[in-house]
Design goal:
64% of the residues lie in helices and 0% in strands. It contains four helices and no strands. The longest helix has 39 residues. The chain is elongated. The protein starts with 8 loop residues before the first helix and ends in a 32-residue tail after the last helix.
Protein backbone atom coordinates (compact mmCIF):
# COMPACT_ATOMS: atom_id res chain seq x y z
CA UNK A 1 0.00 0.00 0.00
CA UNK A 2 1.22 3.48 -0.89
CA UNK A 3 1.29 5.56 2.29
CA UNK A 4 0.91 8.79 0.29
CA UNK A 5 -2.44 7.53 -1.00
CA UNK A 6 -3.78 7.68 2.56
CA UNK A 7 -3.42 11.46 2.50
CA UNK A 8 -5.91 11.87 -0.35
CA UNK A 9 -9.67 11.72 -0.07
CA UNK A 10 -10.01 8.77 -2.47
CA UNK A 11 -7.12 6.83 -0.94
CA UNK A 12 -8.36 7.14 2.63
CA UNK A 13 -11.93 6.37 1.55
CA UNK A 14 -10.78 3.18 -0.17
CA UNK A 15 -8.67 2.14 2.83
CA UNK A 16 -11.42 2.73 5.38
CA UNK A 17 -14.00 0.98 3.19
CA UNK A 18 -11.72 -2.08 2.89
CA UNK A 19 -11.03 -2.18 6.62
CA UNK A 20 -14.69 -1.63 7.48
CA UNK A 21 -15.85 -4.42 5.17
CA UNK A 22 -13.25 -6.81 6.61
CA UNK A 23 -14.31 -6.07 10.19
CA UNK A 24 -17.99 -6.45 9.33
CA UNK A 25 -17.32 -9.87 7.75
CA UNK A 26 -15.22 -10.88 10.77
CA UNK A 27 -17.98 -9.80 13.17
CA UNK A 28 -20.52 -11.90 11.26
CA UNK A 29 -18.22 -14.93 11.35
CA UNK A 30 -17.51 -14.51 15.07
CA UNK A 31 -21.23 -14.34 15.78
CA UNK A 32 -21.94 -17.47 13.73
CA UNK A 33 -19.06 -19.37 15.35
CA UNK A 34 -20.25 -18.27 18.82
CA UNK A 35 -23.72 -19.68 18.15
CA UNK A 36 -22.31 -22.96 16.83
CA UNK A 37 -19.83 -23.39 19.71
CA UNK A 38 -22.47 -22.57 22.34
CA UNK A 39 -25.02 -25.04 20.97
CA UNK A 40 -22.40 -27.81 20.46
CA UNK A 41 -20.97 -27.37 24.00
CA UNK A 42 -24.45 -27.37 25.50
CA UNK A 43 -25.07 -30.75 23.90
CA UNK A 44 -21.67 -32.27 24.81
CA UNK A 45 -21.44 -33.57 28.39
CA UNK A 46 -18.08 -34.09 30.10
CA UNK A 47 -17.71 -36.73 32.80
CA UNK A 48 -18.49 -35.33 36.23
CA UNK A 49 -20.79 -32.51 35.01
CA UNK A 50 -23.50 -31.33 37.34
CA UNK A 51 -26.92 -30.02 36.50
CA UNK A 52 -26.04 -26.66 34.73
CA UNK A 53 -22.33 -27.31 34.05
CA UNK A 54 -22.78 -27.78 30.25
CA UNK A 55 -24.67 -24.52 29.84
CA UNK A 56 -22.30 -22.54 32.04
CA UNK A 57 -19.24 -23.87 30.18
CA UNK A 58 -20.87 -23.14 26.78
CA UNK A 59 -21.76 -19.60 27.90
CA UNK A 60 -18.18 -18.88 29.10
CA UNK A 61 -16.62 -20.02 25.82
CA UNK A 62 -19.24 -18.33 23.60
CA UNK A 63 -18.90 -15.11 25.61
CA UNK A 64 -15.31 -14.73 24.39
CA UNK A 65 -16.43 -15.11 20.78
CA UNK A 66 -19.22 -12.57 21.37
CA UNK A 67 -16.59 -10.15 22.74
CA UNK A 68 -14.58 -10.65 19.54
CA UNK A 69 -17.74 -9.96 17.52
CA UNK A 70 -18.38 -6.78 19.48
CA UNK A 71 -14.75 -5.64 19.04
CA UNK A 72 -14.94 -6.21 15.27
CA UNK A 73 -18.21 -4.29 15.06
CA UNK A 74 -16.64 -1.39 16.98
CA UNK A 75 -13.56 -1.53 14.74
CA UNK A 76 -15.80 -1.22 11.66
CA UNK A 77 -17.48 1.82 13.23
CA UNK A 78 -14.07 3.30 14.08
CA UNK A 79 -13.00 2.91 10.44
CA UNK A 80 -15.97 5.04 9.39
CA UNK A 81 -15.20 7.50 12.18
CA UNK A 82 -11.62 7.74 10.90
CA UNK A 83 -12.80 8.85 7.47
CA UNK A 84 -15.37 11.28 8.87
CA UNK A 85 -12.78 12.83 11.18
CA UNK A 86 -10.26 13.15 8.35
CA UNK A 87 -12.80 14.91 6.15
CA UNK A 88 -13.89 17.21 8.97
CA UNK A 89 -10.47 18.05 10.39
CA UNK A 90 -8.31 18.06 7.25
CA UNK A 91 -10.25 18.40 4.04
CA UNK A 92 -12.98 20.86 5.07
CA UNK A 93 -10.90 22.91 7.52
CA UNK A 94 -9.60 25.54 5.05
CA UNK A 95 -13.11 26.22 3.80
CA UNK A 96 -14.49 26.56 7.37
CA UNK A 97 -11.64 28.90 8.28
CA UNK A 98 -12.31 31.06 5.22
CA UNK A 99 -16.01 31.32 6.10
CA UNK A 100 -15.15 32.19 9.73
CA UNK A 101 -12.68 34.85 8.59
CA UNK A 102 -15.29 36.39 6.27
CA UNK A 103 -17.81 36.53 9.13
CA UNK A 104 -15.18 38.03 11.43
CA UNK A 105 -14.34 40.75 8.89
CA UNK A 106 -18.03 41.48 8.34
CA UNK A 107 -18.59 41.89 12.09
CA UNK A 108 -15.50 44.10 12.35
CA UNK A 109 -16.65 46.35 9.50
CA UNK A 110 -20.10 46.57 11.08
CA UNK A 111 -18.58 47.61 14.40
CA UNK A 112 -16.34 50.18 12.69
CA UNK A 113 -19.32 51.63 10.82
CA UNK A 114 -21.32 51.84 14.05
CA UNK A 115 -18.45 53.56 15.86
CA UNK A 116 -17.99 55.99 12.96
CA UNK A 117 -21.69 56.83 12.97
CA UNK A 118 -21.66 57.33 16.74
CA UNK A 119 -18.62 59.64 16.55
CA UNK A 120 -20.17 61.65 13.71
CA UNK A 121 -23.43 61.97 15.63
CA UNK A 122 -21.60 63.05 18.76
CA UNK A 123 -19.59 65.66 16.87
CA UNK A 124 -22.75 66.97 15.19
CA UNK A 125 -24.48 67.30 18.57
CA UNK A 126 -21.44 69.07 20.00
CA UNK A 127 -21.25 71.55 17.12
CA UNK A 128 -24.97 72.18 17.35
CA UNK A 129 -24.79 72.73 21.10
CA UNK A 130 -21.85 75.11 20.74
CA UNK A 131 -23.51 77.14 18.00
CA UNK A 132 -26.92 77.54 19.61
CA UNK A 133 -27.60 80.80 21.47
CA UNK A 134 -27.50 80.63 25.25
CA UNK A 135 -31.09 81.85 25.68
CA UNK A 136 -33.76 79.48 26.81
CA UNK A 137 -35.34 77.56 23.94
CA UNK A 138 -38.97 78.28 23.27
CA UNK A 139 -41.60 76.29 25.11
CA UNK A 140 -39.61 75.86 28.33
CA UNK A 141 -40.07 77.61 31.61
CA UNK A 142 -37.33 80.22 32.10
CA UNK A 143 -35.18 79.82 35.17
CA UNK A 144 -35.59 82.61 37.65
CA UNK A 145 -32.45 83.42 39.54
CA UNK A 146 -32.44 85.11 42.88
CA UNK A 147 -31.49 88.78 42.86
CA UNK A 148 -28.34 88.34 44.94
CA UNK A 149 -26.67 86.35 42.17
CA UNK A 150 -27.37 89.06 39.60
CA UNK A 151 -26.33 92.02 41.72
CA UNK A 152 -23.02 93.72 40.77
CA UNK A 153 -21.81 93.55 44.30
CA UNK A 154 -21.91 89.74 44.23
CA UNK A 155 -18.67 88.41 45.81
CA UNK A 156 -18.52 85.57 43.29
CA UNK A 157 -17.95 87.94 40.43
CA UNK A 158 -14.59 88.99 41.78
CA UNK A 159 -13.09 85.65 40.84
CA UNK A 160 -11.57 85.30 37.36
CA UNK A 161 -13.25 83.24 34.68
CA UNK A 162 -12.12 79.72 33.99
CA UNK A 163 -9.71 79.13 31.13
CA UNK A 164 -11.42 79.34 27.78
CA UNK A 165 -14.34 81.34 29.14
CA UNK A 166 -13.14 84.62 27.65
CA UNK A 167 -14.90 84.16 24.34
CA UNK A 168 -17.64 81.80 23.22
CA UNK A 169 -16.69 79.25 20.62
CA UNK A 170 -18.42 79.07 17.31
CA UNK A 171 -17.24 75.76 15.83
CA UNK A 172 -15.84 72.42 16.92
CA UNK A 173 -12.57 73.35 15.22
CA UNK A 174 -11.83 75.73 18.06
CA UNK A 175 -11.42 72.67 20.31
CA UNK A 176 -9.56 70.41 17.90
CA UNK A 177 -6.59 71.13 15.69
CA UNK A 178 -7.42 71.62 12.07
CA UNK A 179 -6.07 69.05 9.63
CA UNK A 180 -3.62 71.20 7.71
CA UNK A 181 -1.67 68.11 6.69
CA UNK A 182 1.08 68.69 9.23
Amino acid sequence: MDINALFTDEGLRAFTATVRDQHVRDAQQYGQIADIVRSRLQQTPIDGDRWMAKRLRAWKVARQLKAMQKASTEAAAKAEALYATYVNEVLELPQRRAVAEAKRLERKQGRQAAVGAAVAGSLNRTVTALNTPQEQPGGTVPQVRPAEFVAPDNPWQQWPMAAGGERPTSTINDYFAKGDGK
